[in-house]
Specification:
With about 230 residues, this protein is mainly β. The chain contains 3 helices and 16 strands. Strand 10 and strand 11 form a beta hairpin.
Amino acid sequence: MAGRLYIEALDTARLLDDVVIDHPVVASPNLAPRHWLSMLRLEQGHIHLGRAFWGMTPSWLKVLNHAPHCARAESLDERRMFREAFSARRCLIPVSGVYIWKQLPRQKQPFLITRVDRAPFMLAGIWCRYMTDTRTAFDSMALITVDVDAPLTPLTDRFPAVIGAEQAATWLSPETPLVQARKLLAPAPPALLGAFPVERLVNDPANQQWHCARPTGHMLTATRGAIHATGH
């Protein structure tokens, strides 16, 4: 699953070319669901960087705490708001890392998942628009999660689908056949991601210090299907 996000002040040029910047990147060392974040979406043939609320909020939703912040790739067709958004309103969320928690005998240990090279990456999502009146609207979104491969298998069974820059236009376009879009929802390549334990300070979403992401141990990576530790 994806409980929190680590988002540095990203340079979108490192992710995609020719992005229209409608809103600066929302940076946070410990961003929790039901907060605003940055979202890439297709609008009139151009990729735009804007803002969205993390939690799908269609106009008929009555309780904000019920806004789902993740959707399982396997069950996108089971709920109307997921099915319609997956068909026509796919998005990407630029991040520097994703926090997950591993259950230990007496407590949970937070880990930060990043690219091995620490470059930013993009997570697959779906979005919807809610008109508050005839002139005002806001966008909201949910991440799409998939099963995991090494090196994440010892830590969690779900993680947001990672979309590469070369796949971004295909994922974002509503003209892409759904069969083709579904094929992009796969576990990240094993060599792409690594995980390292971080301070338990991150357990409280009110803590917004950047050292929430400070490593407290070695990074786990996958090489030839085996997990090993590297220096951090």
